Each structure stands twice: as structure tokens, then as C-alpha cells.
Amino acid sequence: MISPALFLFSSFLCHVAVAGRTCPRPDDLPFATVTPLKTSYDPGEQITYFCKPGYVSRGGMRRFTCPLTGIWPINTLRCTARVCPFAGILENGAVRYTTFEYPNTISFSCNNGFFLNGTKSAQCTEEGIWSPNLPVCSPVTCPPPPTPKFAVLSAYEPLAGNRSVYGKQAVFKCLPNYAMFGNDTATCTAHGNWTQLPECREVKCPFPIRPDNGFVNYPAKEALTYKDKATYGCHDTYVLDGPEEVECNKFGNWSAQPSCKASCKVSVKKATVIFEGERVKIQEKFKNGMLHGQKVSFFCKNKEKKCSYTEDAQCIDGTFEVPSCFKEHSSLAFWKTDAWDVKPC
Ligand SMILES: *[C@@H]1O[C@H](CO)[C@@H](O)[C@H](O)[C@H]1NC(C)=O
Ligand SMILES: *[C@@H]1O[C@H](CO)[C@@H](O)[C@H](O)[C@H]1NC(C)=O
Ligand SMILES: *[C@@H]1O[C@H](CO)[C@@H](O)[C@H](O)[C@H]1NC(C)=O
Ligand SMILES: *[C@@H]1O[C@H](CO)[C@@H](O)[C@H](O)[C@H]1NC(C)=O
Ligand SMILES: *[C@@H]1O[C@H](CO)[C@@H](O)[C@H](O)[C@H]1NC(C)=O
User: Fold this and answer.
1) Domain 272-341: which topology?
2) Which atom of ligand 4 is nearest to the CA of 191?
3) Is 162 in the pocket of ligand 2 (CB under 6 A)?
């Protein structure tokens, strides 16, 4: 018979022998969990290290048994973050990132003329995939440009579906007799709309007024409009001052207003002058008068130096003034030398 006292003592010893070798709470490992997690383990009890979601170790998990020594074996388990597929390049855009590991987020932007077709950012998930899916940068497009009133598209190359890509142009033309205000070219902008479209307006010009001593011809129409033309002419001795043909411009005005200018009578009876680089006898060359605008050079004498110089005179609308330095000799004064026969100064 064992005394109760001995039984108690021996069970106490036994307890000490076992209790003295329990394993402590296992070390924390970064990004790993332990199951079961307790403050102490009896020898023979098992624990398992698992990497937390989003982290992986080379060997997968690690299982340990609490040894009789009560000291957990050295744990070499390393849990590292999962890495998502490379996502550092976005065509026609840019990616902002630090690393592509769980649980990082990366963000996206697109170049001018492109828009983010997808999300602004994505996260590397526990499973090592990007969520949501990576976006793309798609080109901004414009719908077909509206055609202004009284205009037609003269150049336009749309894509399939009639849309245009950023930067493409459309060129407009006005219908005949309509004048364009603004730029004939519109460009598809990065906003997906078109730059300012031109305007086509009907433009009328007043009927041209017949010039004095002349005439004007223009189309026999109810009204004269943009780009219509009128032609001018003058009667016999009159000369047109301005272009023969004028055009109705987009401001409702004619490009010019020509008039007819009178020719001049030459009062000098006898003189040699220079006309268009040649010496001519004025009384012969201009016996029918001088036309408006024609110009001659008279010879004058420098008495002191006994030489000659020239001075110009021009016919302006019926008026022709002979230079005051010019002296016309009487035809009887045959002994006098004419200025044009004197050596030049
Ligand atoms: C957006 O991207 C998808 C897939 O790349 C593409 O099929 C679609 O046409 C794009 N949308 C636009 C408006 O460009
Ligand atoms: C594109 O434009 C043409 C001519 O303006 C039209 O006939 C055609 O239906 C348009 N197509 C689409 C897809 O809008
Ligand atoms: C018309 O616009 C285009 C671009 O849209 C520009 O290159 C051109 O210089 C403009 N023309 C005029 C006359 O302003
Ligand atoms: C195009 O759209 C942008 C942005 O919405 C706006 O600021 C601009 O005025 C528009 N341009 C035209 C010509 O309508
Ligand atoms: C026509 O031209 C004249 C002179 O060049 C100018 O004073 C007038 O304002 C113009 N008229 C119009 C409608 O532009």
C-alpha cells in the first residue's frame, strides 16, 4: 500500500519533470502566423508556421514539434511578399510605382491626346495579380465635325466609325459667292472637340459706279456678290487710274475704285526732252497730247557753269506744268544754243 503522502510527492516529481520542459510561446516571424498559438506547449505538441496571405516562403509551411528539451528548433522560414507581373510601362502614358509587391498600389496617367481607358490605379493582390485589370491609354477621338452653314468639307479623313484622332484636321470651303470668316481648318483637340469652325456668309457688293469719261462692265445679276468681278475702261484720251478689273471682297467692298484721268495738252512748241530714257521731240511725240501719268525730263541751262541739267514734268489728270527753268527760244533767235545741245553738268 502506497501512502497517500508518497503518491502526492511522486506525482509532484513527475509533474516537475514534465512541466520543466514545456516549450514557450514561439517567436514571431514577419508576415507569418503560428497555429495553434499558445503561451506554452508540452513536449510532443506540434505547431505550424504559415505565411500570411500575400506572402510566400520557398518551402511553403514549417511544422515543428516541441522537443523534450523545451527549446523550439531554429526556424529559418522567411515569408516574402508576392510580386505581381511587371507593370512599369504604359504605352502613351506613365506609371507611378515603388515596387510591384503585395500590397502596393500603382497609379497611371496618359499622355496628352490619350485618355485612361480603365482605372486610375491598381493594387497587387494577395494572389499576386493586379486588381482591377491594368488600363490602357486610348487615343482621344472627335466625332465628325459639324459642317457650318453654306460650307462643305474639302478635306477630311475619318477613322472607322467616322471619328477622328486627336490632331487630325478637317478643312472647309464655302459655297460659291459665300465668303469665309475664320480659319478654314479645324483640328481635333485633346478634349475630343474641334477647334473653332469657320463661318460662311453671303456677301453683297454695291453696283459699281460708272467713272466720268469711262465705263464699267459687270455681270447682269440681281445682286453682285463675293468674288464677282467688274471691268473698267475710259473714253478716247482718258486713262484709267487703277486696275482694269476689280473684285467684290469679303467685306462687301470692291478691291479698288478706278477712275478716268484726262490727258494733257503740251504748251511747249519746240523742245527735246527725255521720255522713257530716250531723247524725243516733244512736239512730235505728244502732238495728240500727253496721257495721264506720262513723265518727261526737260533740259535747263546752268548759266554760270555753261552746262545743262534736267528737271521732270508729269501729266496729272489734264495738268502739265513745264519746269520754270526751261526757256523756250523764239524760233527767230537762231543764234541761241538750246539747252539740250549744251553739255551736261
Ligand atoms: C478601351 O480599351 C479596350 C481594350 O483595350 C478597347 O477595346 C476599347 O476600344 C477602348 N475604348 C476606347 C473608347 O478606345
Ligand atoms: C460615316 O459617314 C458617312 C458619310 O457622312 C455615312 O454615310 C456613314 O453612315 C457614317 N458611318 C458611321 C458609322 O457613322
Ligand atoms: C488655321 O489653323 C491651323 C491649325 O488649326 C494653323 O496651323 C493655321 O496657322 C491657321 N491659319 C490661320 C490663317 O490662322
Ligand atoms: C472643347 O472642350 C473644352 C473642354 O471641355 C472646352 O474648354 C473648349 O472650350 C471646347 N472648345 C470648343 C471650340 O468648343
Ligand atoms: C469699304 O472700304 C472702305 C474704304 O476702304 C471702308 O471705309 C468701308 O468701311 C468698307 N466697307 C465695308 C463694308 O467694309
Assistant:
1) Complement Module; domain 1 (2.10.70)
2) 2
3) yes
Rounded distance between C-alpha atoms, residue 303 and residue 296, angstroms: 22
**Ligand 2 atom with minimal separation from the 161 CA:** 13
Inter-CA distances, 35 with 25, 26, 32, 75, 84, Å: 11, 10, 10, 15, 28
Question: What pLDDT digit, counting tens, does each position of 204-236 carry?
Answer: 999 999 999 999 999 999 999 999 999 999 998
For ligand 4, atom 10: residue with the closest CA: 193
d(CA 149, CA 152): 8
Please work out whether the CB of residue 251 comes within 6 Å of at least one atom of ligand 5: yes
157 Cβ closer than 6 Å to some ligand 2 atom: no
CATH architecture observed for domain 93-139? Ribbon (2.10)
Which three cell numbers, joined as nine digits, stand for 267? 504748251
106-148 tens-digit pLDDT:
999 999 999 999 999 999 999 999 999 999 999 999 999 999 9
Residue tagged 485589370 (cell numbers): 133
* CATH number for the domain whose boundaries are 141-202: 2.10.70.10
pTM of the model: 0.65
